[in-house]
Amino acid sequence: MGKSTDDRPRWTFLTNHARVLLEIARDPQVRVRDIAAVIGITERAAQGIVTDLKEAGYLDPVRVGRRNHYTIDAGQGFRHPTEANVPVRVLIDMFTHRDRTGTAAERTGAADRTTEDQTM
């Protein structure tokens, strides 16, 4: 129950906008094509989300050669009024903390279960 015929959840706690922001936080020079592949959306949808985030002031893309380098305004609050006083940095830190500070084994998912349970 709760899953569609293709075994993907019908809903999730994080929106695609949050997922795009997190992918950019992990790699500020990530290509839209790669964002789309990781998240499981079309390139067009990913580009639309990047545009939404840029227009809302969360992203500042700068062209570097043939790629964009994105700077995130992590101090900006969430969009919903009930979370507007919480900076998106909280979300970014929550989901990218292990990417930045974990060992290579932890980043690739090769860490043992005990280590994972202690961090939660």
TrEMBL record:
Enumerate the residue ranges of region (Disordered). Answer: 100-120
Q: Which residues form a coiled coil?
A: none
Supply one GO molecular-function term: DNA-binding transcription factor activity
State the Pfam families in the record: MarR_2
What InterPro entries is this protein classified in?
A: HTH_MarR-typ, WH-like_DNA-bd_sf, WH_DNA-bd_sf
Span of domain HTH marR-type: 16-63
Give residue spans, biased composition: Basic and acidic residues: 109-120
* Protein known as: Putative transcriptional regulator
